[in-house]
Amino acid sequence: MDVQHARLFGSEGNLSLIGTIRSFANEHPESFLDYLRVAWERDGAQAAKMPDVLTSLKSILVMCEDGKRRPLSTTYLPGREMLFLRGKYMLPDEIFPFLKLQKPWTRDSWAFLESYLGVGAQESLDFYLDILKAIKDASSGEEDVEFPHRVLELYLRIAALCGLDGEEGGATQQTREAFEDQALLLWDNRSWARASDCFLGSSHKPGVKCHILPLNPAWKASDTERAEVTQFFQHTLRIANTYSRAHILEHLDKIREWAKPGSYWVTSMARRYGLVRESVKLLSDDDARQLKSSFINEAYIAVQQDNSLQWYKQSDCVWSWGLIIADSGRIDLSEQYKELETFFTGFLGIERYGAAYNELVESTLLDVSMETIKQLLFSLSASILEHGHLLNPGRFLSSKVLPVRQTNGQVRLNSPDTDFYIVDRKFCQCFSERVPILDFTPHEVWLLEPLLVWADLESRYLSWNVADTTYLKDPAPELLTGRFTGAKARGLIRIASHFRSPRAKNQGQRQSLLRKLERTKFFRSRGICRQLTLERRSSHDATYTLSGQLHIEEGEEELKIYVPHDQAAQDLSVTSLPRALVVWLMGDPDSGLTERVNEVAVSLVKSISNAEDALINRVLDEEEVVKLEDLDVQADVG
User: Fold this and answer.
1) What is the mean pLDDT of the chain?
2) Do 294 and 245 meet the contact criterion of CB atoms below 8 Å apart?
């Protein structure tokens, strides 16, 4: 499609060609404006009545004089008056978004851009604000702005336009929002700030960041200009004259008034309170006390909820890192204001983590459901790694906060110091009707592990208290082919030595262990039994016998390993063999007792089980397992 045949609508007259027009703009940016001018001459009357078409045209990226493309509605026509004003306020190397036109400029040719598509063509408040923004964008922040008097002149020109509209008119509101959103206040000749971050006068107190007056001598302001710009700062931008409690509260009152859903204020409150924190340093002691009192008595704490702000008093809030009972009605500030903890918990005195912790340990005094308590325990566990050092477990251990299922099936809240067990492994669930248990599944217990460790309750794990043994009832097991190769046997001994197995303390033990491993025989059997015994000090032991998947039997000269007769069960038992071998390797040969299994050792046995013999030593070397040069030399295991 060429420029001469440009159209905004299809041949039927009502089908928009926006997609085609946008493609032309992307492919031919240099000639697009001529294309749009020709198309408007033909179809502009119709397009002017269609808001959706106008909105789409305004968003098309067009070529500007600096070679960059910008949305059409953010650009300006390079008329003689506009070029003059640009030259008056801007330096040659500062960029302003004038359109790059191929056709010589005449107002009649391009008037439609101004009238319908938002392109600037005349002196206006938008124009001066955009010039100010362009000067700011061109400054590096590391060097002073050149000829700062031009910035002063822009402030005065903007002030004059606001004065025509009144202090509460649309121009004034637009200016306040622009200075706030785009930080257009030049305050030290090189740094730009939002009006709400600044004060008029300087202070001898530490911590003052932005003060506007007196004006920098480089501005070369006359007495009249100084008076007029001070009025602009005070009345149009509402910059406070002093550091006072009244100013802080007035500012927060204005935010409550201005903060519409989705506005800039909604997402900027952390920075606002950061400024309040700095301002507190500048207040008198009496003013600071009154400011805190205002936060206690009135709702001056803003919390972003969805896309708007809700306001709360100090007593409505808590600092608890997400840990709070939903029914309590208190608001956790820690997530939204995580960098301002000292301000909220220090100066304002908002209760810290302990407040939410108190609600947990005193939950029996509240009308709180069992499910809510469980969720609170999950929440506490999730944050305990980072914040547990702030809490004393003593109150937790003496409070009835744990849901315990009794042997009759009823669930009651018990304190951690009562008699109960924790089902941390599925095989332990068979004891759930014989002993009181924490009312959580093994997966939920995994989620609670940080809390249980913090409260020193790991000793309640059933897997720690259950003796798990196997035995054989089959008089005629069937011998299978298969054995441990010499390489795998030596790999197992390296692992045993590394973890200081009582079976591999010296050269003689290692040689004996090697012979035993190399002579290992495998059998399949229909009579493998597993016996679980829970030893209880307060009552009789509880014992369960189950079908077993694996049994290891040690003889004088060999090891016998029994697996199920069924092929599927046999394949499954192979996955349990590395752990069973570690239990046997790390067991005391005299007592048969094994300390808690080291999971790293289990992982290493799995690794060499799946590795080729030639790679076993390399696998263990990579994991820095202690080397045994040969089994005739005692290994140095430290």
Assistant:
1) 85
2) yes
Can you give the pLDDT at residue 540? 64
**Angstrom distance (rounded) from CA 82 to CA 90:** 12
Return the sign of the alpha-carbon dihedral for residues 579, 581, 583, 585.
Answer: negative
Q: Is the pLDDT of residue 564 over 90?
A: yes
Residue 542 confidence (pLDDT) above 80: no
What angle do helix axes 245-258 and 285-297 make, rounded to 10 degrees? 30
Strand residues in 101-200 grouped as ranges (E) = 185-186, 192-193
Q: Helices 32-47 and 107-117: crossing angle, nearest 10°?
A: 60
What is the model's pLDDT at position 304? 87
**What is the rounded CA–CA span in Å between residue 24 and residue 29?**
7
610: CB partners within 8 A, 6+ apart:
none
Per DSSP (E only), the strands in 97-233 are: 185-186, 192-193
Residues 597-632: b if buried by 16+ CB within 10 A, e if exposed:
eeeebbebbbbbbebeeeebbebbeeeebeebeebe
109-123, 316-330, 511-525, range with the lowest pLDDT: 316-330
Side chain identity at residue 208, one-letter code? V
The Cα 574–Cα 551 span in angstroms is 11
Of 638, 626, 636, whose CA–CA distance to 493 is shortest?
626
Closest CA to 89 of 153, 9, 22: 153
Secondary structure (3-state) at 44: helix
DSSP-derived 3-state class of residue 553: strand
C-alpha angle 104-109-111 in degrees, rounded to nearest 5: 125
Q: What is the DSSP string of 258-314?
A: H--TTSHHHH-HHHHHHHHHHHHTTS-HHHHHHHHHHHHHS--EEEEETTEEEEE-G
CA separation for the pair 122, 85 (Å, rounded): 10
CB 637, CB 498: distance < 8 Å: yes
- What six digits make up the tokens of 98? 């004038």
What mean pLDDT comes out for the span 138-148?
A: 85
Of 537, 413, 548, nearest in space to 474 by CA: 548
